Amino acid sequence: MDGLTTYPRGWFVVCFSSDLPREGVLSLEYFGQHLVAFRGQDGTARVLEGYCAHMGASLSQGKVIGDDIECPFHAWRFCGSGECVHIPYSPKIPPRARQRAFTVVERNGVVLVWHDELGRAPDFEIPDIPEVGSAEWLPWQVSQYTIKTHPREIVDNLADKAHFPRVHKTEIDEFGFEVDGVRATQRVKGRAALANGGVDNFASRTTYPGPGYLLMRMDGVLSNYMLLAHTPVGENLLHLRMGVMLKIVGSQAQTEGYVSLYLDNLKKGFEDDMKIWEKKIYRDPPLLCEGDGPIGHLRRWYKQFYLRPTEGAST
Ligand code: FES
Ligand SMILES: [Fe+2]
Residue 67's domain is classified under what CATH number? Predict the structure, then answer.
């Protein structure tokens, strides 16, 4: 994209917390780069550039020693801030022996990195979900997809009011959309067709606290949170991670009985979107009519995450 960064700046999910046990190592490909995630014995998740500064081995084949990662090739060790802290056969560590390190936060059951092509520091946060870990809610049920599309297609969905009845069998009675700095929020009241032939009258609030991660709170037959995070692998390929957390109604066993049904329903909704995303092109500007949602408003909000500072991006 002319004059814009290739990837948006912001927080992006690189794994579920449960994917990275203590002393675990994960090979990652995001933002067109090879990365490595590891969790030290102290329980903290860290993410570094994946190819070793020495001779280029993949640190993802290495192992965790204490809170550091050791390269599989010549056993150089790197700490979470990227510095080489130990070379077994050399008393001197070259000053440039360091890996690029990402700022990492772990929140609401996922590990996120801050990505900014221009190296600007984080200037907003991912909010906590207070109900995570509560005895009144079930833990996240998760799933993950690899999709051949651009992140802007996932984000467009937030304002695309007219696709709900067609793609999701959902009638929209009220639709609101507002932006506030880096946050964009959609509020919907509607009626969803249930698999058993019934109708679920629901109200939902969906917020992007930045470009790569949405949280939806929905109250209807059941109360739930849905987390939907997309992270660019390359320019037209991304990982989409979904988590659903239900409030326990009646007994825990009864609610657990609903979970897989409910998750299947939500997954099917996104799978229907995915079929469209993988085959479509991006019209900019699109040809809109009355009854379409505020797609132009959403796209203006989303563009801020690609702007270079000289073009007025927040710093
Ligand atoms: S390539 Fe990593 S220590 Fe040599
Ligand atoms: Fe959709």
Answer: 2.102.10.10
Give residue-wise pLDDT tens across range 30-61: 999 999 999 999 999 999 999 999 999 999 99
Q: Are residues 187 and 232 in the same domain?
A: yes
Instruction: Report the DSSP pairing between strands 183-193 and 170-180.
Output: antiparallel
Cα distance from N-terminal residue to C-terminal residue, the chain: 20
Question: Closest-lying ligand to the alpha carbon of 155?
Answer: 2
- How would residue 315 be classed by pLDDT, with cut points 50, 70 and 90? very low
**CA 204, CA 202: separation in Å to the nearest integer?**
7
Q: Alpha helix (H) ranges present in the chain?
A: 151-156, 163-168, 252-279, 295-303
- On whether both 154 and 276 belong to a single domain, the answer is yes
Kindly indicate the confidence band of residue 311, based on its pLDDT and cuts at 50, 70 and 90. low
Looking at the structure, tell me whether residues 280 and 146 fall in a common domain: yes
| 109 in the same domain as 62 | yes
> Is residue 123 one of the residues assigned to a domain?
no
198 lies in the same domain as 92: no
DSSP one-letter code for 50: S
Ligand 1 binding pocket includes 118 (Cβ within 6 Å): no
Instruction: Give yes or no: residues 92 and 159 share one domain.
Output: no
Considering every ligand atom shown, identify the ligand nearest to the alpha carbon of residue 55 and give its number: 1
Structure tokens at 233: 């692998």
Structural domain including 249 reads: 141-303
Percent of the chain topping pLDDT 70: 97
34, 48, 70, 73: residue to mutate for ligand 1 pocket, most atoms within 8 A of CB: 73
| pLDDT (0 to 100) of residue 313 | 45
Distance 214 CA to ligand 2 centre (A): 13
The answer, yes or no, to whether residue 243 has pLDDT greater than 80, is yes
The answer to whether 262 touches 244, Cβ cutoff 8 Å, is yes
